[in-house]
């Protein structure tokens, strides 16, 4: 994965995305909110799921214990390409639909009902100006979101699992 192209998300805002790998996470009522998020994502296109992992919050300390997260990666092929900016807004809305509340108080234990992060994308590529036909790129044309790399252990495991299942 280290050989894949990395880009800052802000440089791709207007680009049309056709496929992506997402990281889902929840540390509060994951059994309720993960299925809701997966169902909403399936409405956008074809979905493949990695194994769900239960992980301790890496920011927890003995003085400030925090609930474990349930994490899962999702491979999504969009029915209709969308710009990265549209996708980011769509995922913020989906998090809100899962009752996500962004807490701002310092040292407050956060209840995260749903967090959706874009790990990797494939962009639409117009074959030529006459055909307007979308072409899907090879594995080497995945773009890793630079703000998410290096991946956390559960994200890397999920991405590898999806790739090994013929992503």
Architecture overview:
It is a single chain. With 167 residues, this protein is an alpha+beta fold. Strands 1, 2, 3, 4, 5, 6 and 9 form a seven-stranded mixed beta sheet that branches. Helix content is 23%, strand content 32%.
Would you tell me the overall average pLDDT? 87
- List the uncertain runs: 127-137
**What structural class do helix, strand and pairing data support?**
alpha+beta
General form = globular
Characterize the main sheet: 7 strands, mixed
Strand content: 25-35%
Number of strands: 9
Give the end-to-end Cα distance, rounded to a whole number of Å.
14 Å
* Helix-residue proportion: 10-25%
User: SSE string, helix = H, strand = E?
Assistant: EEHEEEHEEEEH
Radius of gyration, whole Å: 17 Å
Please name the defining characteristics of this protein:
167 residues, alpha+beta, seven-stranded mixed beta sheet, two-stranded antiparallel sheet, 3 helices, globular
